[in-house]
Design a protein that fits this description.
Elements lengths: L1 H18 L4 H23 L6 H29 L4 H4 L1
Helix pairs in contact: 1-2, 2-3
Catalytic activity: a ubiquinone + NADH + 5 H(+)(in) = a ubiquinol + NAD(+) + 4 H(+)(out)
Main location: membrane
Subcellular location: Membrane
Length: about 90
């Protein structure tokens, strides 16, 4: 049951990423939501195995680095162009 719920939430995040692709901040929020869903899936799958929590910790480190990199790019774009609209940046 958890797998189908994670798949549904992941697809909802993917749809919101496709629909709201004009703002960089909304795209970053959709990517973070999808990362949280993948974390939930990993936690459900690897929680049953002993000693597999290092994979979850490694995944969280990668997600945090992705979030920091996205926010720093967003700050750079807003400082350069004044907003986060994709069509204004391109």
């Amino acid at each position: 049951m958890e797998i189908w719920l994670c798949l549904y939430f992941y697809l909802c995040g993917l749809v919101s990423l496709i629909i709201k692709s004009d703002h960089v901040l909304l795209m970053l929020m959709s990517l973070e939501f999808m990362s949280v869903v993948v974390f939930l899936f990993l936690f459900c799958c690897c929680g049953m195995m002993v000693g597999q929590f290092y994979l979850i910790l490694f995944f969280l480190v990668i997600v945090v680095c992705e979030g920091v990199l996205g926010l720093s790019l967003l700050v750079g774009v807003v400082r350069s162009f004044g907003n986060d609209m994709i069509y204004c940046v391109l």
